[in-house]
Each structure stands twice: as C-alpha cells, then as structure tokens.
Amino acid sequence: MFKNKNTVLKMGRVKWFDQAEGYGFISPVDGSDEIYVSRRAIANTKIKSLNEGQDVEFSIYRSSHGLSAADVIAF
C-alpha cells in the first residue's frame, strides 16, 4: 500500500498489537473510532510489530475488517 497525493495522514497511538497474530488497533488522536492494523500495513519493512502506546502516523482505507490502517510509520 502506497500513499498517493489524495491520501490524508492521521496521527494515533497503538491501543494494542498482538505480535504473534500480527494485528491490533490504533486509537486516532482526534478521538474517532479505533482503526484495525495488520503487520503488513507497517511501512518500514524492517519493523514487523508495533508496541502498545507507540505513536504512529497512518492513512486509512476500507477493508473486510472495516476501516484499516495503511502506510503505518511508528515513532
């Protein structure tokens, strides 16, 4: 998944991430609904997991899970 010029980036914090299963949820800082995130959405290919409480930047798309994160960059 790659950003395009129409992509809106959001900021959030990892609510939880199950490293064994490879997915979790992000709580956007704007208070909107939690966003599903999978390890495949992490933009840095050297990072395969996220940590609870970690700040992230991401874009959103609609998937079979509902709203999902893409292009996730962890700080």
TrEMBL record:
Principal location listed in the UniProt entry: cytoplasm
Gene3D superfamilies the record matches: Nucleic acid-binding proteins (2.40.50.140)
Database matches in PANTHER family: COLD SHOCK DOMAIN CONTAINING PROTEINS (PTHR11544)
Pfam families: CSD
PROSITE patterns reported for this sequence: CSD_2 (PS51857)
This protein's UniProt keywords: Cytoplasm
Transmembrane parts of this sequence: none
CDD domains named in the record: CSP_CDS
Coiled coil ranges: none
Compartments (UniProt record): Cytoplasm
Domain CSD, first and last residues per copy: 9-74
SUPFAM superfamilies linked to this entry: Nucleic acid-binding proteins (SSF50249)
Source superkingdom: Bacteria
Protein's name according to its UniProt entry: Cold-shock protein
